[in-house]
Write a structure and sequence with these properties.
Elements lengths: L2 E6 L4 H12 L4 E7 L4 H11 L3 E4 L4 H10 L6 E4 H9 L6 E4 L7 H9 L3 E4 L2 H17 L3 E4 L2 H9 L17 E8 L9 H4 L4 H4 L9 H9 L1 H13 L7 E5 L5 E7 L4 E5 L5 H9 L31 H11 L3 H17 L7 H12 L8 H22 L2
Parallel strand pairs: 1-2, 1-5, 2-3, 3-4, 5-6, 6-7, 8-9
Antiparallel strand pairs: 8-10, 10-11
Bound molecules: NADPH dihydro-nicotinamide-adenine-dinucleotide phosphate and magnesium ion.
The site of magnesium ion (MG) has 4 residues, from helix 7.
């Protein structure tokens, strides 16, 4: 029977790859609901092609979407708006699978709603887990939601871990013979830049990733290595493991997507061409496998794989994230909020590339940390941190 899919963030890079996977398996999956934020015309084209029951946009975009629907004679899709609309589709009883592919903190409540409704949740929106790790993981357990990693590294780790590992109570320590997780990082577009060169890089250069084609925010995160920092936190929550069991390995070719080491000396790696359709298809079909258009890895072409330590002097964001995870509580949410503000300011040419980690560090030092016991507290801290980070970016404004 066909499974109904809700794609939150359908107009983005992950949203588009999700549609590619669905296109290959029209008998298995149907698009039930979609959401967008600014690209309303693109959303209307998606509705024309896939006939979802619901499309969600910000209230300010509803009229514009109605106009496009009229123009294209789309009558079968109902328009919902804002966060309440996103939550309604994420927890809709007819939905089987939710692709959480909104970027940033805006994805938190809809992703959590999908988890609380016990869905199969394909998690791309790492920021939501970074902000609310304990709450999200607890909700998944209590509501028997399947929270499956789409982030290529976490999907790779998941593939290399023993079966049923996600269901274990680990107490923060690796179990079943696992000794360590090796989280790979491409190193981003500025891997070999000096500090002086880094001080002058532009948003356009930062958004040009050597191996992956992604949205702007994650591209900048990859360039600062904050993406790896967020992923470190994501891995700690997904696999219930303390941060010192996760080692970051720079692997510029992005062929190995991450590894798991075992006590007997084994290291298992998941490899493949860098294309998000592979982890997306894996999360759709797990524990089965479905075909994608991604060509098999040709090791005679990709015949050199390199590995090195990350440089935390040129890329301090990774260490900031590790420290935030070590501190625990609200620190990861503070880190995430400050980073979102700093990245936005950098993209608008308001601050310099090297200011991004500075804004994050100052915000972490300024906003008080405590236990992240409730969602309200997390959201309140998120807005406090944003306010402070905005002040900082304004004062740094070039
Ligand atoms: P994009 O910027 O390409 O897409 C983001 C999507 O979210 C778009 O559909 C956008 O709508 C929507 N959106 C943006 N802001 C809001 C908001 N405030 N409220 C509701 N919706 C919003 O990002 P990516 O697809 O690259 O990334 C999505 C998530 O997946 C991120 O969390 C990222 O870290 C993660 N991820 C991405 C990978 C990749 O390869 N791209 C790899 C691993 C993880 P619109 O386009 O209409 O403005
Ligand atoms: Mg990743």
């Amino acid at each position: 029977m066909s499974q109904s899919v809700c794609i939150l963030g359908v107009t983005g890079s992950i949203g588009q790859s999700t549609l590619k996977v669905i296109d290959r398996h029209p008998e298995k999956y149907n698009v039930f609901a979609v959401s967008a934020f600014s690209r309303v015309e693109q959303l209307s084209e998606i509705c024309q092609q896939y006939h979802p029951q619901y499309a969600v946009v910000p209230a300010a975009k509803v009229d514009e979407l109605h106009q496009f629907f009229k123009l294209k004679n789309i009558t079968s899709t109902e328009i919902l708006s804002d966060e309440s609309g996103l939550i309604a589709v994420a927890e809709h009883p007819q939905v089987d699978i939710v692709m959480a592919a909104i970027v940033g903190a805006a994805g938190l409540l809809p992703t959590l709603a999908a988890v609380q409704a016990g869905k199969r949740v394909l998690l791309a929106n790492k920021e939501s887990l970074v902000m609310s790790g304990d709450i999200m993981m607890k909700a998944a357990k209590e509501n028997k939601a399947l929270l499956l990693p789409v982030d290529s590294e976490h999907n790779a780790i998941f593939q290399c871990l023993p079966q049923n590992y996600l269901q274990l109570d680990t107490g923060g320590k690796p179990q079943l013979g696992v000794s360590q997780i090796l989280l790979t990082a491409s190193g981003g577009p500025f891997l070999h830049h000096t500090l002086d060169e880094l001080s002058k890089v532009t948003p356009a250069q930062a958004c040009k990733h050597p191996n992956w084609s992604m949205g702007q925010k994650i591209s900048v995160d990859s360039a600062t290595l904050m993406n790896k920092g967020l992923e470190l936190i994501e891995a700690c929550h997904l696999f219930s493991i303390q941060e010192h069991f996760v080692t970051v390995v720079v692997h510029p070719q992005s062929i190995i997507h991450s590894m798991v080491q075992y006590v007997d000396g084994s290291t298992l790696a998941q490899m493949g061409n860098p294309d998000m359709c592979t982890p997306i298809a894996h999360a759709f079909a797990w524990p089965n496998r479905i075909e994608t258009h991604v060509p098999p890895l040709d090791l005679f072409v990709n015949d050199t794989l390199n590995f090195k330590q990350p440089d935390t002097v040129r890329f301090p964001a990774l260490q900031l994230a590790r420290e935030a995870m070590k501190s625990g509580g609200l620190a990861p949410a503070i880190l995430n909020a400050a980073n979102e503000i700093a990245v936005e300011a950098f993209l608008k040419n308001k601050i310099k590339f090297l200011d991004i980690p500075k804004v994050v560090e100052s915000t972490l030092n300024h906003i008080q940390n405590s236990n992240a016991d409730s969602l309200e507290l997390i959201l309140e801290t998120d807005s406090l941190s944003r306010r402070y980070a905005i002040q900082l970016t304004n004062s740094l404004s070039t």
